[in-house]
Design goal:
- By secondary structure, the protein is an all-alpha fold.
- The protein has 22 helices and no strands.
- Helix 9 crosses helix 10, helix 11 packs across helix 12 and helix 14 packs across helix 18.
- The N and C termini lie far apart (89 Å).
């Protein structure tokens, strides 16, 4: 009976989310609120239903499932209440009028941003590859380095987090070529040979960081961002392309681990055979990471609230600075607390277990923190949508918008501000450089205009 009630509760939430998406007005298909609804539906409707019906087979946090179970009515109730409060906070926030994207940046601004990102990524790439023992070794051992199995001893190994600056540069290059709906670069670059070189260069810059860092998200995110950018430019959903992308993404999630392990000895066939079992096992392998946010909430809800009081917001600058550079100041991470709480093992001895969105609000202020935090998140999402929606509707403007809103919505998965700042750091770096060079170049042009303008005598 309890299982039926839980299935009914999450089904009601799913119908509620779909209904809101079907009947609300929007200017573009993939705005911030749609991305929020899509992620909430996936993490807190689809995932709980899988865990409740399929059990431990669909989770990675088996220790939580064995100790607590698939979650109960309490977790379901607060997931539903939190969604209602987020929606309330979003729609109660008045629309803000800003001038963002009302004037096109000169081409020199984008050229400087792309050049800066390429330079930063290149410095990080050269240092990391040298520290890792070579280009091929860094790719072959990427997944083992990421998991901590293979150690790299270097003073400034944190520079590897700057390699994805290449990806941000590649996305900007694509957006620049799309500014006039010119998807094949015929106006952006003259000559077929140069266009081929451009496509190859962009592809390398976009995906090489993911191969070196051994991460699925680093490889998948650029494709997802470009799909949303394409849809917003044409104001179309592209359903057929979305279905194809979903299928490719499913296969990628199911088999990427096997492929990444195979880079070490090129025994791809062996690893793929080990991973490819029944259709159910393939599906479960692809789906399990989706259930992380829900299982973390189940684990956090079962523990006594910790008065964290959103302290990480105060220490945000120190989360962006590598600990080696500020060794005199010890900043406690949210993951240090939640990992030991959920696993009973300190973070240094096991992989990190974040609290998830609801778990973070719960540990920061109990039920009060969950209520206030949900409303505030909805307000913040609306403000980000209003402030960064470009007035000129250019590809570069929408790319900046997607960076901001996706980064904000990404909190739903892990519930850690520092995680969003660090993993999406190349996005924030690109945003900072855009503002930095934009202000400088526009100021120079304004000074020149005022200086060269003729003086009128009365």
């Amino acid at each position: 009976m309890s299982t039926f009630i839980l299935i009914f509760a999450y089904s009601i939430l799913g119908i509620f989310i779909i209904s809101i998406e079907c009947f609300r007005k929007r200017n573009i298909p993939y705005d911030g609120f749609f991305l929020f609804n899509a992620c909430y539906f996936l993490y807190f409707v689809i995932a709980p239903l899988h865990v409740i019906i399929g059990g431990e087979y669909f989770v990675r946090q088996t220790w939580i499932y064995e100790k607590i179970g698939p979650g109960g009515l309490g977790e379901a109730l607060w997931i539903l209440v939190s969604y209602i409060l987020i929606v309330f906070g979003y729609f109660m926030t008045p629309s803000l009028k800003t001038s963002f994207g009302s004037k096109p940046f000169p081409r020199v601004v984008w050229a400087l941003v792309v050049t800066s990102l390429f330079f930063i990524g290149s410095i990080a790439f050269i240092y990391y590859v040298k520290a890792a023992g070579g280009f091929l070794f860094s790719i072959q051992e990427a997944v083992f380095i990421r998991q901590g199995i293979v150690k790299i001893n270097a003073d400034y190994i944190f520079l590897k987090h700057l390699i994805p600056a290449w990806t941000a540069a590649a996305l900007l290059l694509v957006a620049i070529s799309w500014n006039n709906r010119n998807y094949f670069g015929t106006r952006f670059i003259k000559g077929r040979f140069l266009r081929v070189i451009f496509i190859i260069a962009v592809t390398v810059l976009m995906f090489l960081p993911g191969l070196i860092l051994g991460g699925r998200r680093a490889l998948a995110f650029p494709i997802v961002v470009l799909f949303f950018l394409w849809g917003n430019l044409e104001k179309r959903w592209h359903f057929k392309s979305a279905v194809l992308l979903f299928f490719i993404g499913f296969v990628f999630l199911a088999f990427w681990d096997a492929l990444s392990f195979g880079f070490r000895d090129f025994a791809f066939n062996q690893y793929l055979k080990e991973r490819a079992g029944s259709l159910l096992s393939i599906y479960a392998n692809a789906f399990r990471p989706v259930a992380d946010a829900y299982m973390h909430w189940v684990g956090m809800h079962a523990n006594e609230p910790i008065l964290w009081a959103f302290k990480d917001v105060v220490f945000l600058p120190f989360y962006l600075i590598p600990s080696r550079l500020v060794s005199w100041f010890d900043v406690t991470s949210v993951a240090e607390i939640t990992t030991e709480m959920l696993k009973g093992i300190s973070l240094g001895k096991t992989a990190a277990e974040p609290p998830g969105f609801h778990g973070y609000l719960y540990m920061s202020g109990g039920i009060f923190g969950l209520i206030v935090g949900s409303v505030f998140f909805g307000m913040l999402l609306k403000i980000a949508h209003c402030v960064f929606s470009p007035k000129l509707k250019t590809a570069t403007g929408w790319l900046v918008y997607l960076w901001v809103v996706i980064g904000l919505v990404y909190l739903l998965r892990h519930g850690m501000i520092e995680f969003v700042l660090n993993e999406r750091f190349h996005w924030w770096l690109a945003l900072f450089l855009t503002i930095f060079w934009g202000v400088i170049i526009m100021s120079i042009q304004s000074i020149r205009k005022n200086t060269l303008s003729p003086v009128r005598l009365k």
